[in-house]
Task: structure prediction
Amino acid sequence: MATLVLDNGAYTAKIGYSHEKVSVIPNCQFRSKTARLKTFTANQIDEVKDPSGLFYILPFQKGYLVNWDVQRKVWDQLFGREMYKVDFADTSILITEPYFNFTSIQESMNEILFEEYQFQAALRINAGSLSAHKYFQDNSSELCCIVVDSGYSFTHIVPYCRGKKMKDGICRINVGGKLLTNHLKEIISYRQLHVMDETHVINQVKEDVCYVSQDFYKDMEIAKLKGEDNTVMRDYVLPDFSTIKKGFCKPREEMNFSGKYKTGEQILCLSNERFAVPETVFHPSDIGIQEMGIPEAIVNSVQNLPDEMQPHFFKNIVLTGGNTLFPGFRDRVFKDVRSLTPTDYEVSVVQPKNPVSYSWEGGKLLSDNPDFDEMVVTREDYEENGHCICEEKFDI
Amino acid sequence: MVEKKTSARSQEANQRRILDRATRQRRLNRQLEALEKDNFQDDPHANLPQLVKRLPQFDDRHESSKKRKKTRGDHFKLRFRKNFQALLEEQNLSVSEGPNYLTACAPPSKLPQRPFCAVCGFPSNYTCVSCGARYCCVKCLGTHQETRCLKWTV
Result:
């Protein structure tokens, strides 16, 4: 009996059988201005010839699954003939959900998994719990850890002790990759070029060019300088989808500091946006969101826990989620948390090699666990007892 | 006669419209909500005439769809298409005790807010009198007054 591990995120779905490798696939549908009549689902984005002005249809809203039509179409594609060819009667599924997921969504998920797709067994779990499971497997001497899951829709800071999440300590910051991309689109549209429609392109710009600064005000001073002294400034060549398929950042040697470029490419000149945009994760108040940033929220969350456990949490901070891939993220979190905690506590921040699929790896480990069969709810159980057995067994 | 170059600051006080704090807060909230949007353009398929009703799908889905139990039409539409706000209200969190979605939200920061110029992005020290936007220097104020001040809403 095979186990399919699916980390169902708001931006990408990380899916794979537990004995195989993971694939990261966009969890949405796309529509293009040029290809009328066709809606592209999930991995079909590679077939889109003209990704300019790509229209996204996401099943998630604010991090919670609200649009089941779109989600089922994506799942049909993932479970179908072209991709994973799932044999439902012989497969159990391990699927992730956001923290504090609403009961109606949980019930809909049960219905869809058991009644429509007819999986043999299912386990619904938080993505951070899988990350914590993997962390405890790799570091068996540690009892507590804090998982910082910074994704597309929001960032959650969750303390785990002995494998169980501590609900009182869960902290949610409503800043995620989507907000950063939209903010970057707004600033570029005001200062340089109208790009409000180009989510896909600007997302690529954000991933290529943005970084987290270690010393914010110093970088600001450097960004104010002109010409060659401004080491922060970069020129980004936008794709035009005919000659240049994918945008790229010009290396410093080719940059023309005085005067304009002669070639016909569209160039974005970015200086303080490079580090001011990811700074929003550390200080959401910069754009007007009245919430704490990640380092403050970590310290706040730990301080609400019993005193004797606090040092153990600070020693095991794990960064997961795609939004942590900015260069310099880990060092900056360490620096800020270190300056906010007493000197006698040891602070250690760990970022796995692949933060995006870390939860999926945890799911893979969990499915190999001998207790896995106790934790799942089989289809027979569900048909006898309905939603209440799922509510009892799954701790969401 | 040499034309006098009018500076932005020489606008007469009674010609300027000044927004009060509540309006400024409302504009800010609308800007923040706009940051949550998935798309800023309209659906490219929205206005297409429904010429092609249902293309016959020439794949062997017919066999597999017979095996699947379809959930009933109306029940489906009601249950599975609510938006986020409706689901949140349904959850009725204000009466429940213990940690939940609303209590998990991060509290406001203890550090002071750092203002940035709306035009260039560098730290700002001054506020536009009319609309409350921040600027860092007189040049940015000029740009702001010409392009955005009270001229642009989300």
